Structure formats: structure tokens, C-alpha cells
Amino acid sequence: MLGKKILAGIFAAVILIKLAFLLISPSLWLGATQAFLGHYPLMIAIYLVLLVVTGYFVFTRIDLIDVAVVMLFTSVLLGLSLIPYLASIPQLREAIVTVGFAKAWPALVIWVAIALAVLYRIFAKKRG
């Protein structure tokens, strides 16, 4: 339980710090993000480590169907957050098509694995 609280606290703190930077000094936030974006392999490694750590807590302590519902909620919230930036999204779509699966395959594999596991849990559950 302590591990989940620590991860939840980190999540809340990071969100509040990010929003504070966006409100107080957007240029400072932009500079910080540009610095991170310059280290692609390091970013991938950090995200994979974070996925393993958080995934351990999520998939060992929470029902997979509940995880899927939370992921749906998060995806919808992310979509709502991106609506004001619709003018930039065509460039993103073009970049996704141009790059293809070559660089994004680890995330896509995880998405597919979760989706298949959820469908299996929904439809293969023994009735009665």
C-alpha cells in the first residue's frame, strides 16, 4: 500500500509542478521539455523503467478490467486536453504515418497486449 501511495504522490506532485510552470513561466517549461526531448534514448529508458515499476503495482494489485476503465478515462482526458491544439495535430498524424511502427513498436506491443488481455478476461470468463 505504501508503494502505491508513493507513486500516487509522485503523480500528483508532477502534475501540480507542471501546471505551475505552465501558468507561471511557459517559456521555462518549454525550455525544460526541449532539453528532455534532445535525449531520445534516455527518455525511452526512463519511460520503460517507469512502466515496469508502475506496471508492477497496477497489474499485481488491481483487476485488469478496472485498469482498462482507468486507461479509457485517461485516454479521454488526454484527448480533451489536446482539443485546443487541433491545428497542430495534422503534423503529428503525418509524422506518425511517416515514422510508422519503427520507433513506436514497444508502446504498440504493450497496448495490444493489454487490449488482448482485457478481451480475454471479458469473453473467456467461465460463466456460472
Radius of gyration: 18 Å
The average pLDDT score comes to 87
Helix content: over 70%
Percentage of β-strand residues: under 5%
Beginning-to-end CA distance, first to last residue = 33 Å
Find the count of extended strands (DSSP E, 2+ residues). 0
Shape: globular
Structure description:
The protein is mainly α. It has a domain at 62-128. Helices cover 83% and strands 0% of the residues. It has helices at 2-24, 26-37, 40-61, 64-82, 89-99, 105-123.
Based on the model shown, name its key terms:
mainly alpha, 128 residues, 6 helices
Outline:
The chain has 128 residues and is mainly α. The protein contains six helices and no strands.
Give a topology summary:
Elements: H1 2-24, H2 26-37, H3 40-61, H4 64-82, H5 89-99, H6 105-123
